[in-house]
Design a protein that fits this description.
elongated
């Protein structure tokens, strides 16, 4: 998986490759594809991958279930980043950041 690649983009690319391999008679079950996907996720998904491996039987987990789970985590990470940026802006405003003006302290 590439650093800035979304879960949906990565799955589309990976499943295209897996399907081409199957067309050429490569014996590759869903469990093998799932293991390869989990192994190749970027570092920011490490805790999610561990959680999925610990809480699921990878032999019966479907590719769709895996994708759904990773999408939920991707959305949560995106929301967390937005919240952090909003808090940073608010903090800078209270500290008089961005030009040294303090818009929130008493006016005298």
């Amino acid at each position: 998986m590439k650093e800035r690649e979304s879960v949906n983009e990565y799955f589309a690319r990976t499943l295209t490759i897996a399907n081409k391999m199957r067309i050429h008679r490569e014996k590759m079950g869903d469990a093998v594809v799932i293991e390869k996907i989990l192994r190749s996720m970027t570092a920011k998904y490490d805790y999610v991958v561990c959680s999925i491996e610990e809480s699921n039987d990878l032999d019966i987990l479907s590719i769709d279930e895996l994708q759904s789970s990773l999408l939920v985590h991707e959305q949560r990470m995106g929301r967390h980043t937005v919240d952090e940026q909003a808090l940073k802006v608010i903090h800078e405003m209270y500290q008089g950041g961005r030009g040294g003006r303090n818009n929130f302290r008493g006016r005298g």
